[in-house]
Give the backbone structure.
Amino acid sequence: MMKHLVLACALLAPAAAQAQAKKEPPVAAEAAPLSDPAFELFRLVPGQTEAFIRSVAIWDQVNAAGGQPKTQLYLHEDGEGWDVMLYKPPRAAPTPEQSAAMAAKMKELGLVGGPLFFIGLREKVADHAHLVMKGPMLSEAWVAELDAQRADLAAQK
């Protein structure tokens, strides 16, 4: 199953990144570093699919309040035993102002964090896999980086 998961993520990441790039303006060169993209696969408790997807939509309101990108949702149609995959595109860490806006939105929506969030999530989720990956990238770019690192090591000897 894991090889299918990694393959699915590898195939979806470039399309997801391109879709996100079309929705967001270009970022200035001096922008804060971005997180790596993250993929999460969920096998949901039977009967909890709608509640889970609605909760993603509600938390996206919190992301939007803080100027953060929304989570992209993929629904299972065929294959292994997962129900929903979430793609969390690269994002900069929220500024203090963005964090405050997100906290205010959480309060407005009656949302909780910490252990209470975890308990609420686990009522909907039977199983979960979380992958943080580098990319999207071309294989030639990765090979060039590998060769450059080896050249740097050889030059240090």
Q: What stands out?
A: The chain has one domain: 2-17+34-156. The first strand starts at residue 38 and ends at 44. DSSP finds five helices and four strands in the chain. Residues 112 and 130 are 21 Å apart (CA to CA).
